[in-house]
Amino acid sequence: MERSSKDVWVGLFVLLGAAALLFLALKSANLLSFQWTPTYQVTARFDNIGGLKPKAPIKSSGVVVGHVAAIRFDDKSYQASVLLQMDRRYAFPKDSTLKILTSGLLGEQYVGIEAGAESDNLSEGDSISQTQSAVVLENLISQFLYSKAADGQSSGANK
């Protein structure tokens, strides 16, 4: 069997295409992240993180300013401890607040950060105490149904 240079080029092109598809798949699933910018780590505690996952983005005004490095459960406070990796080029005051938000109605969850007013900025190892847990859709539905059932019982008792 004779190999020509065209076979080598076709094989190389196929390998390059497969590598590009793999790269795009990993990048779109947020499983691949190249970090060339210097970062600093801060922690935050949440009562409920919902479906937040490691490598989820941290956004401020819609701009990605970092990502979730790790999530742990603290068995002393019974809260989720979230380790955040923030880009050093973005400085936030120490009294900034964190919220777990959802992009769209049923989209992925991310951490939203709102800047505070304090003059000192967050630095390596700091902890953010002002947090708001994730809004769980099932809890909202059950609260709505419970309030409607309570309204129905009270209006039936007035008759």
Integer tally of domains: 2
Could you give the distance between the termini? 94 Å
State the helicity in percent bands. 25-40%
Q: How many DSSP-defined strands?
A: 8
Average the pLDDT over all residues and give the rounded result: 86
Class by helix and strand content? alpha/beta
Order of helices and strands: HEEEEEEEEH
- Biggest sheet details: 8 strands, mixed
- Uncertain regions spanning at least 5 consecutive residues: none
- Principal-axis shape: flat
Major beta sheet, strand line-up = 7-1-4-3-2-6-5-8
Number of helices: 2
| Strand residue percentage | 25-35%
Key phrases:
159 residues; 28% helix; 2 helices; alpha/beta
Descriptive account of the structure:
This protein is α/β, with parallel strands linked by helices and 159 residues long. It folds into 2 domains: 1-30; 39-143, no CATH class. Helix content is 28%, strand content 31%. The protein contains 2 helices and 8 strands. The chain has helices at residues 5-28, 137-157, and strands at residues 39-46, 57-60, 63-74, 79-87, 97-102, 109-114, 127-128, 131-132. The chain has an 8-stranded mixed beta sheet, with no helix packed on it. Strand 2 (57-60) and strand 3 form a beta hairpin.
